[in-house]
Structure formats: structure tokens, C-alpha cells
TrEMBL record:
This is Peptidase. Belongs to the peptidase M13 family. Residues 488-687 form the Peptidase M13 C-terminal domain. Keywords: Hydrolase, Metal-binding, Metalloprotease, Protease, Zinc. Residues 60-436 form the Peptidase M13 N-terminal domain.
Length: 692
């Protein structure tokens, strides 16, 4: 995902020979931990089965219902989740593997390296009694420091000090490849500071109840931290006014997802200082240990200007309340149950409709993944990913690449000049599969069995400094933006690469023993999806080397926008069962990638099976099973609150519309199910969208 790749950068192909996961130095020691996996205790995976089909429905008029309706009706959302489907089931399986590994690491007395980090975080995180006994004491020194902030200069100094520890309350700051020279890292400062999911939550009429609940949540957190009830209520109202002002100066998620150039606003440090007279970037950079930087990207400058104004005209008491609330709210998952439960009540129950808090072990594993994901991943791939799977994936990627090349060559709407540039970009794709060839070095991160939040804060600071250490240096192209145990995939425009972590390489996406149509309809379409991100409305603004450049002729660019406009209109026309409108513009990049990815995967499947008889498995043709496995990937139930939240904030359309959106544009789908013009799943004429 393009937006994910950019966000990952903010936070933090030729065939290659299989490389065994690198072992840390402890693996050579006589008493090294020998990781074991009890596969019999792992949750099952979600495969397409003939019995899933609801034959009372017609694939040509209700393909999502035909493929997934019966399964969705029979699989309620677990009480500790807000959605349930193929992705979530694989996530449960990955989490169960991680739990076994963390328990083994924590129980090993001589653990060193990544196993010690994972073991310490697990052991301290699982000590619920100690967290409850400590209450708010672990962050009492932070709150005392906030109480002492009496003027603007003291507030700015505190913001700089806490940012240097990886706790930046107001804006994101980190490394990012230069748009004009993606081989080098620069620094970028982004907007931030909001407690609600997006700026629109502060203004939209249908979010009024959420705003009311958020103010009540702020007051409750302040009360738990020791503020008197009446004072907490007043401070909560002041904080909401404060954040609303920040929201007015912010860009929405839709804005950011549909214009990647917003991340790129290079200026000199001196000019940045002039833009925000109450906040010195010179002093900020110095406080972060970033030296010798002549210029950086001050993204969303109007936001930073507003922060500067607020430093000058907002009562320090309001700043203290804001900083106190976000300090406590951010630490809540690592404090006593009272704090963790209050955070759950608002962010999970109210915002997303989750009925019960996750068991503690799942929450601790989530923390480990957030703070030391690749350390845990180094353990994960030793027991949960095979060289054979990687080799077969490499074949699939090569076949998808060849199919995409052929599709570009045969585009009717694009000129030969632009085609040549598009083919150059396709030839330059690189791929990462399973796990990194070179593991990240965790030397310097000191963890212990003394304090859960102490370990978390140490990891936050370590990760922040690791990221800042990239600024002004060449991009390390071996790095990954996701850990191997994450069920996901992404496209990175700066490196023109597609990346597939080990955990997604399981059914229904991928099975080394499955028939071709199932793998091409699953992971093949995902591979094609990530490749097509290089040609979506934002990825297409980057060239083959990852440079932000225009390689389009004017006529082709105009034609491309006309085609993408038709896809916007298609998804704008979709409605949920309760009448909510899908935002075709916000979801455009993902919808382009789905459409191109599925079409490319189908072509690759037909090429791979050329000359072989159709097995007619369970009475279904090969083509039918290809499209049915695509739909299986997108079977997912949502709580009403989660669905509303995703429509407002997610650049992906809800799963049921992804199941039908791309296939409805493909004549091959209509042929597979003998659909006729006029059927809901057959788009013809001006309604049919063909891009890549």
C-alpha cells in the first residue's frame, strides 16, 4: 500500500537464492533456546470450500452473497474483535505462534539478543498484579514535570525533551527518502496531535455523539490521573477546543491518501524557523541530536503555523491539561487495569463496537509487535516459514510480472512513449518475500524484568533514535516496513518494491500444495495488487528508481484521470446495507490496485495452466474457482461501529465491495459464470472500467 509505505517511512526482479533466517549470536551458545512450535494447538486457516457457496443466490447478481453469504452468517465476530474474516483468522494463527515463542523466550534463563527483548517484554507485560499495584506511579515523574510548565518557553522545551524520547505529542517526525533523490534519507515533520481518528470527527454532524463521548473519556482519564472531577470536566472541554483548532489546520486522511506530494515540502531550517516564530526548528533538531541538516520537509506548513500561534496565545494551563491527558492516555495500555479499561471503553467499544477487551496476552503481544516486531519476527520465521514456500512465491511473482508487462504492452489507451516508461518501471520492480535477508541490529536496547512500561518506553526511544539515525544517510534497501509475522503486504514507491511478509503466505492466500487457480486467485491477485500500486493515482507519480517525477505524456495523463474517474464513480455508487455511502475518491488507489491486480493474476493463471485440462474440481471450472478464491479473501463481518469508522478513515473499501468491484469489470468473470449484460456483476460500455 502506497500510503502505508510512506507512513512506514515516517515511523520508523532478479531471482535471489533462498537464505536461511539469520541466527543471533546466542544461537551458537551451548544453552541456546531451541524454539519449538506445537502446530496442533494453532487455530485453523480459512480455505474456500464448496459447502461455503449459497446456491440460493446468483453469482451474476449477488456474487458476494453467493460466495460468502453462508460463511458470514455462520461466523459471528468474536467478542474481542471488531471484524472477522480471512485476514483476522490468519492474524489469530500468527498471534498463537507468537505466544508460544514469547513464552519460550521468557522462560529461558540465559536468553540474550532478540530472545531476551521479547522475553522481558512478555514477562513484565503479563505481570498484571504488579501493574495494578503500581497504578499511575510509573509515569508520576512525567506528570510532575508537566505540572511545572508555566510559560511558552517551558512548554517548548518540554516538547523537545519528550520528542527526543520518542514521545511526540503534536507532530510526527522522522526519516523519509528524498522525493527528488530516493537513495538518500531526509527528515520530515508531519501533522499530529489529535485524539480522534481523523479531522472530520471534530466537525461532521454524524460524529457528534462520538465527540461527546471523547470529552467524557478525556475527563475520566484526567480523573484517574488525580485531577478533581470538576476540574477534569472543565479541562476536558478545553482540550476538545484545543484539538478542534488543530483539526481545522490539518489535512484529512483522504487528502493525504490522494496527494502524496503533501509529504514533500522541502525548506531550509532557517525558513522553517521564520514560519513558526514560537517554535524553533533549529533548537528542535539540536534537541533530537539531528545535526548538519540544511533542509528538511516541513509537511502541512499551515498546521505547524497554527501550533506556533497556539504556543503564543493559548493558556499554559490548557497546554498542561492537553499534555497530561495524552501522556496518561498513551501510557494506559501499560498501566493498571483502570487505565487500560478506560482506554478500551472509548477507543475500542465506543469507536469500533468491540464488546470485550482482548485477553491480556494478546495485548502484550501487540505491544511486542509494535515495539520490537522484527525481533519477534526473527524468531517467528525459524518455525513458521519454509524455503519451499519462498521458492514457489518467487515463481508466482515472476509470472505476475510477465503478465503485467504484457498488459501494459497491449493497453489501447496509452501511447507508445508512455508505455515504454511504464515498462521500464515494471522491469525495475524488486521483491521481498517472507523475511529480511539482513536482520535489524537491536544492540543498545536494554530491557529488564523490572517494569513493563519501562521496557516499552525504552523501546520507543530506541526505535525513534534508530529512525533519526537514518537522516542524511543513504537508504538501507534491505530494511522492511513490516515484520514477518504481520498478515499484510505493501508496495514501497521510493524503492519500487513489493513486499510479502511470511504470515500472509497461508490459505486462502497461498498454499504450496494448492491448485494454480487457488493460488493465483489468492496471493497472485495480492501480488498483482501490489504491483499495480506502482501505477495507481499516486504510485504512478514515481519513476522506476523511486524518484518523484512525471513520466507521462499530457494526453496519457488526461486519459488516465478519465479512467480513474470512472472507477471513483463506480465505488461512489455502492451503499452498505444500512445506507452508508462508499467514498470512491478516498479508496481510489486501492480500487485501481484491485482491478489491475485481479486482471493480471487471471492472465498469469491462464498462462501457467496453458495446455492443461481443466480439473473441474467439485463441479466448478478453473476460472470459477479463481474468482471464488478472490471472494474468499474478502469475506469479512464488521461491527456497525467498525464499518462506520472504516468508511470514514480507511483508504480501502469495505471487503464486500472489494469482492465484487474488480470482477464486475472483467469479461472473464462474466464468461466464467455465464453472466449476461444487465446483470449486476456485468459492467459494459461506459460503465466498464479498464485501466491496467
Amino acid at each position: 500500500m502506497l500510503s502505508l509505505a510512506v507512513a512506514a517511512a515516517l515511523a520508523a526482479c532478479a531471482k535471489k537464492e533462498d537464505a536461511a533466517p539469520a541466527a543471533d549470536t546466542a544461537a551458537k551458545a551451548p544453552d541456546a533456546l531451541q524454539l519449538k512450535l506445537d502446530e496442533s494447538s494453532l487455530p485453523g486457516v480459512n480455505r474456500f470450500q464448496i459447502g461455503d457457496l449459497d446456491t440460493s443466490k446468483n453469482a451474476c447478481t449477488d456474487f458476494a452473497g453467493y460466495a460468502n453469504g453462508k460463511w458470514l452468517a455462520a461466523n459471528a465476530i468474536p467478542s474481542d474483535r471488531t471484524s472477522w474474516g480471512a485476514f483476522e483468522m490468519l492474524d489469530e494463527r500468527s498471534t498463537a505462534v507468537q505466544k508460544q515463542l514469547a513464552e519460550q523466550a521468557a522462560a529461558h534463563p540465559g536468553a540474550t539478543g532478540v530472545e531476551k527483548i521479547v522475553g522481558d517484554l512478555w514477562a513484565t507485560g503479563m505481570d498484571e498484579a504488579k501493574a495494578n499495584a503500581q497504578g499511575i506511579e510509573p509515569i508520576a515523574p512525567m506528570l510532575k514535570a508537566i505540572d511545572g510548565l508555566q510559560d511558552k518557553d517551558a512548554i517548548v522545551a518540554y516538547l523537545n525533551q519528550t520528542a527526543a524520547k520518542g514521545q511526540n505529542f503534536l507532530f510526527g517526525f522522522g526519516s523519509l527518502p528524498e522525493f527528488s533523490n530516493p537513495d538518500m534519507n531526509t527528515a520530515v515533520a508531519m501533522q499530529g496531535g489529535l485524539g480522534l481518528p481523523d479531522k472530520n470527527y471534530y466537525f461532521d454532524a454524524d460524529k457528534k455523539d462520538i465527540r461527546t463521548a471523547y470529552v467524557a473519556h478525556i475527563a475520566k482519564v484526567l480523573e484517574l490521573s488525580g485531577v478533581a472531577t470538576a476540574d477534569a470536566q472543565k479541562q476536558a472541554t478545553d482540550i476538545m477546543v484545543f484539538e478542534t483548532r488543530l483539526a481545522k489546520a490539518s489535512k484529512s486522511r483522504e487528502d493525504l491518501s490522494r496527494d502524496v506530494s503533501l509529504y514533500n515540502n522541502m525548506m531550509s531550517v532557517a525558513d522553517a524557523d521564520k514560519l513558526t516564530p514560537n517554535f524553533s526548528w533549529t533548537k528542535f533538531l539540536d534537541s533530537q541530536g539531528v545535526t548538519g541538516l540544511q533542509q528538511f520537509s516541513l509537511a502541512i506548513p499551515s498546521f505547524h503555523q497554527e501550533v506556533s500561534k497556539m504556543l503564543g496565545d493559548t493558556d499554559p494551563a490548557t497546554w498542561r491539561a492537553y499534555l497530561r491527558f495524552h501522556t496518561v492516555d498513551g501510557a494506559a495500555p501499560y498501566l493498571s487495569d483502570a487505565f487500560a479499561n478506560e482506554q478500551f471503553n472509548f477507543y475500542n467499544m465506543t469507536l469500533r463496537g468491540q464488546k470485550e477487551i482482548e485477553p491480556r496476552w494478546k495485548r502484550v503481544l501487540s505491544t511486542i509487535e509494535n515495539q520490537s516486531g522484527e525481533a519477534l519476527g526473527q524468531m517467528y520465521v525459524k518455525v513458521a516459514f519454509s524455503p519451499e514456500a519462498k521458492a514457489k512465491m518467487e515463481t508466482l511473482v515472476a509470472n505476475l510480472g510477465a503478465a503485467l508487462k504484457a498488459r501494459i504492452q497491449n493497453l489501447a489507451w496509452m501511447s507508445d512513449e508512455t508505455k515504454a516508461k511504464a515498462m521500464e518501471k515494471q522491469a525495475a520492480f524488486t521483491t521481498k518475500i517472507g523475511y529480511p535477508d539482513k536482520w535489524r541490529d537491536w544492540t543498545g536496547l536494554s530491557t529488564s524484568r523490572d517494569s513493563y512500561i519501562g521496557n516499552v518506553l525504552a523501546a520507543q526511544e530506541f526505535n525513534y533514535k534508530f529512525d533519526l539515525g537514518k537522516i542524511g544517510k543513504p537508504v538501507d534497501k534491505t530494511e522492511w516496513g513490516m515484520p514477518p509475522q504481520m498478515v499484510n503486504a505493501y508496495y514501497n514507491p521510493f524503492q519500487n518494491e513489493i513486499v510479502f511478509p511470511a504470515a500472509i503466505l497461508q490459505p486462502p492466500f497461498f498454499d504450496p500444495n494448492a491448485t494454480d487457480e487457488m493460488n493465483y486467485g489468492g496471493i497472485g491477485a495480492v501480488i498483482g495488487h501490489e504491483m499495480t500500486h506502482g501505477y495507481d493515482d499516486q504510485g504512478s507519480r514515481f519513476g522506476p528508481t523511486g524518484k518523484f517525477e512525471n513520466w507521462w505524456s499530457d494526453a496519457d495523463s488526461k486519459g488516465f484521470k478519465a479512467l480513474t474517474g470512472k472507477l471513483v464513480a463506480q465505488f461512489d455508487g455502492y451503499r452498505t446495507a444500512d445506507g452508508q455511502k462508499i467514498n470512491g475518491n478516498h479508496t481510489l488507489g486501492e480500487n485501481i490496485a484491485d482491478l489491475g491486480g485481479l486482471a493480471t493474476a487471471y492472465d498469469a493463471m491462464k498462462k501457467a495452466t496453458e495446455g492443461t485440462p481443466d480439473p473441474m474440481t467439485d463441479g466448478l471450472t478453473r476460472d470459477q474457482r479463481f474468482f471464488l478464491n478472490w471472494a474468499t479473501v474478502w469475506r469479512r463481518n464488521f461491527t456497525p461501529e467498525e464499518l462506520k469508522n472504516r468508511i470514514a478513515t480507511d483508504e480501502h473499501a469495505p471487503a464486500q465491495f472489494r469482492a465484487i468491484g474488480a470482477p464486475s469489470n472483467l469479461p472473464t468473470f462474466a464468461a466464467a459464470f455465464s453472466c449476461k449484460p444487465g446483470d449486476a456483476m456485468v459492467r459494459t460500455g461506459d460503465q466498464q472500467v479498464v485501466i491496467w
